[in-house]
Design brief:
This protein has 274 residues and is mainly alpha-helical. The protein has helices at residues 2-15, 25-39, 47-53, 108-135, 154-157, 163-187, 214-245, 249-257, and strands spanning 56-57, 65-66. The protein has a two-stranded antiparallel sheet. The radius of gyration is 24 Å and the shape is globular.
Length: 274
């Protein structure tokens, strides 16, 4: 229940920065040219080998190189691909093929779709880790048990909440995923990665009345992408620390900022007996 409330709260803010067609046509044309570099190469040479053969310096990793598929034309591209994922042609598995064909989103757009979706989930998860300690948990009742939602450690709370609450969260997430997959099937190559039809633009749900200029909108898209990347790293650390300590985030921070009693005593830095 508390995770579903956090999801509803963050869904609007995260998806408000999705990419409408008005702001991304230029980037899309440059992205398509980037894809063509990866899909063609000298005779007998794979797309991956061709991309690495034309590799250039990486902005993110100055001591390394970036494949030719990452030429800086895509928003947020800083040449970070040490494992070469961008050199491998990919596409929606649910359309019957892992290799994209005409009219199907694929390659860098498909990787960007995965990055945005995973990043948004990570932002929701980060709120779920911190929110219950900041704002309190939901009250229980006779059916769920008085302490059903009282645990502020998300990893332990998962096994404490009623099964029907988990089904509710799963059903809501499934609904969002089905809508997203339908958008991809319907729009094909014209689909913009991460576009959930929320935010400014024609025929979109715009609950916050967003009306950015094209330049401002590109900046907001970049901000969302950076927050997604930060959240994916951060939530991994939150989960690992919660699993190791068994405590909530704020409880751990509070303990780390507490000065032990012996520190305030005179002679703390001297050996005992001196």
């Amino acid at each position: 229940m508390k995770l579903s409330l956090a999801l509803l709260g963050l869904l609007a803010s995260a998806s408000a920065y999705t990419a409408p067609l008005m702001a991304t046509k230029v980037l899309k044309s440059s992205t398509k040219s980037t894809k063509s570099k990866a899909s063609s190469g000298p005779s007998g040479q794979s797309a991956s080998a061709a991309a690495w053969a034309a590799a250039g310096p990486s902005t993110a990793l100055p001591f390394a190189t970036a494949p030719a598929t990452l030429d800086g034309s895509m928003l947020g591209d800083v040449g970070f691909d040490p494992l070469g994922f961008s050199t491998t042609p990919v596409g929606p598995w649910f359309l019957g093929s892992t290799i994209p064909s005409q009219g199907v989103i694929g390659d860098l757009d498909w990787y960007r779709e995965a990055e945005l979706i995973h990043g948004r989930i990570a932002m929701v998860a980060a709120v779920g880790f911190i929110g219950p300690e900041l704002f309190g948990t939901l009250p229980g009742n006779e059916w769920t048990g008085a302490d059903a939602y009282s645990n502020t450690n998300p990893l332990e709370a998962f096994s404490q909440v009623p099964g029907l609450a988990l089904i509710q969260i799963f059903a809501f997430m499934s609904f969002l995923e089905i809508k997203r997959l339908n958008y991809i099937k319907t729009e094909g190559r014209s689909y913009q990665p991460g576009d959930l039809k929320i935010g400014q633009g024609a025929d979109r749900w715009n609950p916050f009345g967003l009306n950015y200029t094209p330049e401002e909108y590109e900046e907001k898209r970049l901000q969302e992408l950076k927050h997604c990347r930060l959240a994916m790293v951060g939530v991994f650390g939150l989960a690992a620390q919660a699993n190791a300590s068994g405590m909530g985030v704020l409880e751990q921070i509070g303990g780390g900022l507490t000065i032990p009693e012996q520190v305030s005593k005179a002679g703390y830095f001297f050996p005992d007996g001196i």
